[in-house]
Task: inverse folding
């Protein structure tokens, strides 16, 4: 079949084609803008996901350290609880009469209480005190003049407390009869 196209019809087809091209360019521009928005949103979402993953990893590491510290603290608490129970049982099982404690004095001030003089000697070694130079007889010197000094105390049931094991010799007061 043969079809004859007139100039008017050709002109109309050219206008329709131009409008279709224009419409196609508008739709293409809208599609490009939408694609750009979606790509930016995708990048933003990926950045947020990466930051969330990093934060999750950091929180996981902090939580792991906290759990380790908690476990160590619980173990230490359990050990101390066991030691407290042992000491209570020991105290309840025996009389405290005659029980001796050693108080370590540092320049006359109480530093630590020990079960024995040997424990006090060992502890001062951890503070840098040499056993040969520090532990000299204090004689009648005031406790404040001695760098390290041990004083023994014995439990006195009558007073429900501890008293010094070795009392210094009383000095006569001048003019007293």
Result:
């Amino acid at each position: 079949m043969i079809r004859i196209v007139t100039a008017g019809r050709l002109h109309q087809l050219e206008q329709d084609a131009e409008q279709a091209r224009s419409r196609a360019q508008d739709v293409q521009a809208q599609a490009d803008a939408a694609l750009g928005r979606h790509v930016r949103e995708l990048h933003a979402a990926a950045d947020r996901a990466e930051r969330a993953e990093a934060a999750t990893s950091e929180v996981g590491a902090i939580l792991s350290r906290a759990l380790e510290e908690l476990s160590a603290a619980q173990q230490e608490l359990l050990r101390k609880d066991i030691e407290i129970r042992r000491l209570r049982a020991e105290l309840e099982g025996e009389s405290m009469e005659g029980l001796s404690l050693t108080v370590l004095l540092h320049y006359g001030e109480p530093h630590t209480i020990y079960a024995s003089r040997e424990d006090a000697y060992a502890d001062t070694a951890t503070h840098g005190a040499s056993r040969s130079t520090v532990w000299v007889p204090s004689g009648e010197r005031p406790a404040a003049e001695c760098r390290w000094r041990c004083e023994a105390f014995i439990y006195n049931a009558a007073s429900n407390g501890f008293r010094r094991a070795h009392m210094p010799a009383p000095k006569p007061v001048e003019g007293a009869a």
